[in-house]
Amino acid sequence: MRVPKGWAPVLSKEIIEELLKREQINLVAPREQAVALLSELILEELMVEDRLNAEVREMLKKYDSEIEKGRLDYRRLFEMTKQKLVKERNIVL
Question: What are 62-83's pLDDT values in tens digits?
């Protein structure tokens, strides 16, 4: 995640306030509840890449011996695997 987790509530509040100011939304729930929900959604989206990276690291563990022997370049293999998964799953990073 490239944006610190602590920024999600701040960003959420700013987004909600701006949308209300522009009269682009009408809240049917309390403002705090809307901010909290939006904050959760933002965090979820920001963590997509973190979860993908963890999955790729787990997948590459079976190649540890080859990587340690110098037969495979971990960084290159990591990026290639990650890009393949991104393409297969239509993930936007």
Answer: 988 888 888 888 999 999 999 9
Q: How far apart are the C-alpha atoms of 91 and 93, rounded to whole Å?
A: 6
Tell me, rounded to whole angstroms, the distance of Cα 23 from its chain centroid: 29
- Give the DSSP letter string of 15-34: HHHHHHHTT----SS-HHHH
Nearest Cα to Cα of residue 85 among 53, 61, 46: 53
**Cβ contacts of residue 8 below 8 Å, gap of 6+?**
39, 42, 43, 46
CA distance 49 to 92: 9
For the chain, domain boundaries: 7-46, 48-89
